[in-house]
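name: query_chain
kind: protein
chains: 1
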Amino acid sequence: MVGIATPEAAQPDLSGLEPGRSAIPDVALVLTVNSRVRELTIEPRVTLLDALRDRLHLTGTKKGCDHGQCGACTVLIDGRRVLACLTLAVACEGKNVTTIEGIAEPGSLHPLQRAFIEHDALQCGFCTSGQILSAIGCIGEGHTQSDTELREFMSGNLCRCAAYPNIIRAIWQVVAEQTVAGDASV
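structure:
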């Protein structure tokens, strides 16, 4: 019969494939991460989290649950909060990705990093990078009208140590500093 695929025809020929290697061809990818252009060759199904950690060696972004539930992998894409474990790296081409390593100049701290230290908002530290990037996003998105709003928009970031009150105080400190300085950006 013509036009009917048989099970044999539907299967790719994997005989020449080396063990542990996927049948999916790699793609060339150009990412802008922390204002630096980075070229990668990866499988199209690689997450942004794995590309950052395993290919670019930016390990500040943490792999927590790997299911988008804990927020430890939060990064900014074009200034918006994104869970890197649920985002394909190929979807980030042409966009600006910011990780914890890219929020301050070498030798200095971002205002939120300073505030987290001052308010002891980083106990074990595992969630800290995701918390800080999410807080930067919250402030940038204008979700700082009340404690309730801030807590709601930070609720996707879990902290095993329960440093939530200190995290909120640290964010409010930066919001207050910006208000005094008349600065709308974090």
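note: Residues 25-102 form a domain with the Ubiquitin-like (UB roll) fold (CATH 3.10.20.30).
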